[in-house]
Amino acid sequence: MGEAAHIPAPGRLTLFLTSVLLVFATVFAVQGTSSAFITLNHGNTRSPIQRETVLARDPIEGVSPDVQYDNYTLILKGQRVFLHSGELHTFRLPVPSLWPDILQKAKAAGLNSVSVYLHMGLTNPAPGVVDFDDYRALKPLYEAAMEAGIWIVLRPDIAGPYINAETTAGGISHWATTEVAGKLRTNATDWRDAWLPYIQGVIDETVPYQISSGGPVIAVQIDNEYTQKFATHAAYFQDLIDVYHNSSIDVLLTYNDFSSGRSFYNGTGAPDLVGLDAYPQGFDCSHPLNWRPVPTHHHAYHQEMNSWQPWYIPEFQGGAFDAWGPTAPGYDACRILTGPSFQSVFNLQLWADNAKLINYYMFYGGTSWGGTPYPGVYTSYDYGATITESRELGPKYDELKRQALFIRSSPEFYKTDWIGDSSTGVTVSSNNAVYVTQLKNHDTPTSFYIARHRDSTSNETAAFRLNVTTDVGQLSLPLNIDNITLSGRESKVIVTDYTFGASSSLLFSTAQIYFAGVIDGRDVLFLHGDSKQDHETAIYGSLPTEFHPQSTLVKIQRAQDIQRRKFSTITFLAGIEGLITLIDSETQLVLFADSVTAATFWAPSIAGAVDDPFRNFWGIGTNDSVLIGGPYLVRNASITGDALALQGDLKEDVRLTVIAPKHIRSLSWNGQDISPDFLAASDISMRSGVFVASLERKSSFTALDIPELGGWKYKDSLPEVQPGYDDAAWTLANHTTTNIPYKPYYGDGRVLYGCDYGFCENVVLWRGHFKATGAEKSVNLSINGGVAFAGSVWLNDVFLGTSFGNSTNNRNNIEETDDKFMFPAGALIPNQDNVITVVQDNNGLNETNYSTFDGDASKNPRGIRGFRLDTGQFGDWKVQGKVGGYRAFPDKVRGVLNEGGLFGERLGWHLPGYPTEGWEKRDLVLGLPDQKAGVGFFVTTFKLDIPTGLDVMLSFDFEQDLGQPYRAFLYVNGWMMGKRIANLGPQWKFPVHEGILNYRGENTVTVALWAMLPNVTVAPKLGLQVNGIYDGGVGNVAVNNPGWSSEDGRPKE
């Protein structure tokens, strides 16, 4: 793999020996150190970076020595790393300036990695065309990841052509679904020819940013969720692997097994590392409180399939997608289904399974704008994720942060052996209703007991005692209170013989660990627990003589002596709220807070040596941190001399708490100096380096002026049904063969599938000509557009009706219709050319069929699968989609999936700057004139003047109830940011980010309104709403919204 494929045999041997030498160098470095810890020589907030022996295993041939693994974890730059990751799809946030916002929020939550999908269909819009400009770019992502200190795992969209991801064709380029005759996702030669330029382009973009080149990329997934049982499928994976092996890529190649599919662990197509995807809660957001049992087979499956590798979960449920339909509950319900209780029970079960590489799908979902969704989902891809579509921290963020900072703080947790659980003879719980798994560090006495309800769906409260073996012998925990309490749908980690800081340790703790480390030579421990429960912890050694609990709810038992080891026990009785200091000595600082208060604290890392490219990566280039309490978000902390500079966001005025090195003399927040309250700080610590201050929002925070949308201009956008319309420039639809496997139902042998003519996405128009005798009474049309599509039909200028696809929360799905349209009296023009016009909305292409593993399920017959007059024959059929099809579309910035073939789209009416002089003044809420069926464009402009230094979340909201028979395509500054299907729903709110919106200038909003029935109310009311205001933000958001130009190659009116 990688450069080893380009060098002669001695060179490959050199790479192999380099890996071996790295292993031995690590071994002897540890053996030559008097302590198990080595401290980085920079900064003075240092914590120990744990160096431990890499197991004597063969390095992975062709993979950089910078990224290896043993059966416990990844080994990055010689360091053991628990990969804790969240999923991010950059194409669903098409503003590169905002990617650092998501990465900073991931880092602030304690994560150290993101998994990234790119989109072949957007990046490779036509054969041989690979475009890494604008939001398709990789370089700004990689550089933002380096700045944030976030590792990147590239997954199938970048690594292989298929991503699934509820996106059209599963990410495969639309052109390939029609131009490739061989089966997609097999070793078919023409499929290989289709994906190879794309993969090579990704390789070229990525090689300079691999870990071996000083970059953040550590792994590449070769493709997504498949099967090895067919030789053609296995050979396809092997083709992908061979391409990487014959390139300069030298990171791990990975694969995500699913449904315990037992594929690609070895044999043809097997990559370097295989993990298992898991969505144990399913996707029924309509019943968010109905839980499925937690899966218990993952550890055994890992031991059976690939015990020599670390246990990797490439996709673990971090939310759920929602479907079209009036009964669809929306993403707030999905956020409850997979909310903090789910995270507590199901995430910690992964820990109990000894998983050490975990990626949550999704961390940030974003927006399926334009034609990017597959038919089953609507525009929003919020996913009920940790970060909302509008980029706000959701209710799940705090629980994820509590978990992630525990992992970051606990290097002894990285190398654990699975001892057993309550189903295999580990009988440590006094209550059979409480299920406990024991993990034990391989090299130290440290154990982690992960407790949950045996019935993981239970809402009952359980009390239990834990019988453990510690370094001082057998103990029954807790010591001074009756029981450990486990609330319904809760999990806990009880630690024994746990090391924190450089030289301190706990005998045990039933209180949860939020943060552990070293700040300025002091061992710091931050404990937390539910304020309604009792908790207990025991610290090895004697408590300082000056120890005086700040609460009467804290009880202490000073030094006890067991096995000649002293320890002191601290009991926290129910009712504690807020932060209290337990120990404040020269060598230790121990804090406790209720879990809600704990989550208001942040632990930003302090960058390491300036000349170290990995200075921002925790455990590699730095182990230095400070503790910051109060703000909505802390994005960054840096120390220059005696000054600590903080950057972050405020939602409200807060009390700031800082625990930092004692030499710090000045503080700043977002560049503004802060005046500390030293008296208030003394309540936390009498030592230097602890500060308390007040942070207040800017005055502009409450002074926003968001305009109402008015002054609409209107123009009809369906001249195609008017007498005399000339379609001579349209594409003649005369194919009689197709690579799409779903053949026409009836007709005369012609194939009327849009993709075959370059028009796969969004609205496509068809015009079928026939010379009428006057005897024709009807036309039969079978229209295929995907779930929840629609197709409206006219005879000449007379509306005949609309075929409605359907989805009712993924039930009663209708992706094609077969209807007879009757001709009203007087609609025909005998002995002349008559035209059937079909306006069809394509809702994307399907994903791979996972019951058959048929990649050709994405080759969909979007268009007309059957056409027949009751008497007579059609002449020419013409077809028109977006201007230029997928080979010559003019809008290279927004890309191939942004727009469709409506007349107004083809002419650029949706673009900023299109001249609307002479258009009718008509309010959007009035709908189309005369309540007719058809399509019209409504355009207005408005100005924003949002002060810099604010992060404002805006959305366009349709303000009427569901049920009206219309579709609205919402364009904001030329970007299709929403599709409103008012007769189905559920979406009515469409978040739009700064960068698409110009926060300090003029904006254009366009609504292409398609009224699908006449003589009924179609009255969309649209408003611009503020959903959140934060003092701070990522800053410097660039706007790239090309406007209309008479020279852009679009047709003229």
Q: What is the CA-atom radius of gyration, in angstroms?
A: 31 Å
Low-confidence stretches: 1-56
Secondary-structure class: alpha+beta
Mean pLDDT: 92
Give the oligomer, counting copies of the same chain as homo and different chains as hetero. Answer: single chain
Largest sheet: 8 strands, parallel
> Could you give the count of β-strands?
58
First and last CA, distance: 55 Å
Given the C-alpha coordinates, what overall shape results? globular
Number of discrete helical segments: 15
Which strands sit side by side, in order, in the main sheet? 11-10-9-8-7-6-13-12
How much of the residues is beta strand, in percent?
25-35%
Percent range for helical residues? 10-25%
Catalytic activity: Hydrolysis of terminal non-reducing beta-D-galactose residues in beta-D-galactosides
Enzyme class: hydrolase
GO molecular function: beta-galactosidase activity
Pfam families: BetaGal_ABD2 (PF13364), BetaGal_dom2 (PF10435), BetaGal_dom3 (PF13363), Glyco_hydro_35 (PF01301)
Descriptive overview:
With 1053 residues, this protein is an alpha+beta fold. 14% of the residues lie in helices and 33% in strands. The chain is built from 15 helices and 58 strands. Strands 11-10-9-8-7-6-13-12 form an eight-stranded parallel β-sheet. A hairpin with a 2-residue loop joins strand 26 (554-562) and strand 27 (565-572). The longest helix has 23 residues, at 9-31.
